[in-house]
């Protein structure tokens, strides 16, 4: 039963209820940090860390947090973890920290984190919330990594900073700029929804209908950014 | 929780305030601890960014580790200051004689200030290198000024400089612009020409 719940949560966050291409959350950073793969990896690692641990912390405290100030407490917890990420980056990989600039701090405003804390961690036990947070982060990360891979390849002819396409390749400057991310994200959503989502939805609809009520149904998050 | 059983408004409010206070206190304590633990490393990193840049533009080989880079900097670089700010750096040869200069160069790029250091020979005309310390140019376009090919092309060039299109052969007083980043490249050309002229006067005046 328990492992079923875990699997269900992961499936929701990585696939059928993916924060980026289904809920369209966290788009700001999807557009901002996906032009170079290396920065994207660091950003995603930071986000997975923050979603996982903020969900865990909110879930541990969920029985004590007074309802009226729960948003304040959540923001405080999220901000604290983001500051930890920022400080660690500054101390151990200063080069990438300088390149990411304000975007690390802006993890605080990533709606996925607040959304998972509100919608999931407040009403579920700690371990499950941790898994939910981590898998939401992963669901976000792999989408960003695919977009970053394609943008860096088309926009700079390079991957991870190494040039892979020869001199014959003319860089698509649009891919490096923010509009390029819009195009890439839209194409990505189109391809995924057109080819994979339909089957997945019908496949997952039947077991849910049979065991109605028993699997947890993480509500989709509220705010959008 | 007795608070939950007795729906007493005052006690509930007090608990709310106390809870927020306690949570804040705990997190601030943890963050302060982490801050104190990493403070020295972060300061060292920040000062090393400039020190490494100075060594790099002077054409010296920059050691991998921070401690070695710092030691080399102490040995070979003299900061000439005026009113607390570094006016320019003197680079010494291994035997301790003046070898060349490094000048801090600031100016406007496309989106924000570009902060760099530029090395010049003793004649104050020939560049030994350039390194960017802070820039906010468009990643992948103007941001490419930090790429090695762009920085390396300045070694041995003489100012005043002008630009040629990317990929074209550049003469003694020319450097290759970046395609799609005309404003950034022109900004760099202008701040180099202006600031190096000013630095020339300042260095000559102080001798």
Write the layout of secondary structure elements.
The complex is a heterodimer of chains A (225) and B (207).
Chain A: H1 2-16, H2 27-32, H3 37-61, H4 70-92, H5 94-100, H6 111-119, H7 126-156, E1 158-159, E2 162-163, H8 173-176, H9 178-210
Antiparallel strand pairs in A: 1-2
Helix pairs in contact in A: 1-7, 3-4, 3-6, 3-7, 4-5, 4-6, 6-7, 7-9
Chain B: H1 2-5, H2 9-57, H3 66-76, E1 77-82, E2 85-92, E3 98-108, E4 113-121, E5 127-134, H4 148-152, E6 162-164, E7 174-176, H5 182-205
Parallel strand pairs in B: 6-7
Antiparallel strand pairs in B: 1-2, 2-3, 3-4, 4-5
Defining key terms:
heterodimer; A: mainly alpha; B: 207 residues; alpha+beta; 2 domains; five-stranded antiparallel β-sheet; two-stranded parallel sheet; 5 helices; elongated
Describe this structure in words.
Chain A has 225 residues and is mostly helical. Chain A has one domain. Helices cover 68% and strands 2% of the residues of chain A. Chain A has 9 helices and 2 strands. In chain A, strands 1-2 form a two-stranded antiparallel sheet. In chain A, helix 1 packs parallel to helix 7, helix 3 packs parallel to helix 6 and helix 4 packs across helix 6. The C terminus of chain A is likely disordered. With 207 residues, chain B is of the alpha+beta class. Chain B has 2 domains: 44 residues; 159 residues, no CATH class. Chain B contains 5 helices and 7 strands, in the order H-H-H-E-E-E-E-E-H-E-E-H. Chain B has a 5-stranded antiparallel beta sheet, with helices on both faces. A two-stranded parallel sheet of chain B has the order 6-7. The longest helix of chain B has 49 residues. The mean pLDDT of chain B is 87. At the A-B interface, helix 4, helix 5 and helix 8 of A face helix 2 of B.
The biggest sheet of chain A amounts to: 2 strands, antiparallel
Order of helices and strands of chain B: HHHEEEEEHEEH
How many strand units of chain A?
A: 2
Largest interface: A-B, 30 and 27 residues
What proportion of the residues of chain A is helical, as a percent range?
55-70%
* Mean model confidence by pLDDT of chain A: 84
User: Beta-strand percentage of chain B?
Assistant: 15-25%
Low-confidence stretches of chain A: 205-225
Number of domains of chain B: 2
